Amino acid sequence: MKKQGVVIALEQGNAVIRAERESSCGSCAGKSACGTLGAWEKGAAEEPQEKTKNQYDIRLPNILLAKVGDVVTVEVPDQLILQVSVMFYGLPVLAFLLFGALSFFVAEAIGFSGDLASALFGLGGAGLVWLWMMNHAEKFDAPQMVEVSSGHVG
After folding, report:
1. Which one of 15, 53, 86, 91 is separated from 101 by 20 to 30 angstroms, measured CA to CA?
2. Is the pLDDT assigned to residue 34 strictly greater than 80?
3. Partner residues linked to 6 by β-bridges
């Protein structure tokens, strides 16, 4: 998937790019947690102009030496959306179920409330898996700049 945006700032070898959110992103239930196109705002620069609700910022390595005001094309690997969805939705749910089931049987075997142990350890396991994934998110194929031009976003 390719997306165009405008470089609004340069910071320590990175370019901060502002782009328009697709109309489908605005109606998606997961837009606030999306790490692909919906929530690239983490670590964005102090914006020189006010950002609208239909815009987002992304910080990428400035490998093509873009300048402020340049229009750049950013490519998001097709498999990234599927990888992120499975990792950040599927694995915590799987961890919740596995930790919950295992703790239920262990707690029942030693005479404690299996329901309470299941809930606590299930939530704890899901949280641990989520934290681990957040610390290893750099292993995903990252979006990257593929083209720079001057002018307006088309």
Report:
1. 86
2. no
3. 18, 71
